Amino acid sequence: MYYKHHSFSTKVLPASLTSINEIMLLAGVDHITIAPKLLRELASAEVDTTNTPELPSLFDKVKTDADQIPPQISYVDDEDAFRMAMTRDGNGANEGKLIQAINIFCDMQLKMEATMREHGAV
Prior knowledge:
Order of helices and strands: HHHHHH
Radius of gyration: 20 Å
Oligomer: single chain
């Protein structure tokens, strides 16, 4: 909602989801990438609407609290402020996830290079 509220021409595309609960929480997002295994789980999941009148979404609260959307912020010319905000957001959880993702990609790169060397491709 932050992006739409401030008229940014971008779309949020969640990926690397690990459960159908995460998928359900993202109901309302512009686009979503779902792995085939999770898509099959989602398709076969039964929803009991008698016990759950409304499935929760991370966007439900945002729809009702539009006045609480933070003002537009730009870090284009202030890398230090960006790094500080990234570290403080979610008590550093986002920075930790970014570091973890970069490490996974680096590990995969090294494995791919080793495999290519083993097969004489390099």
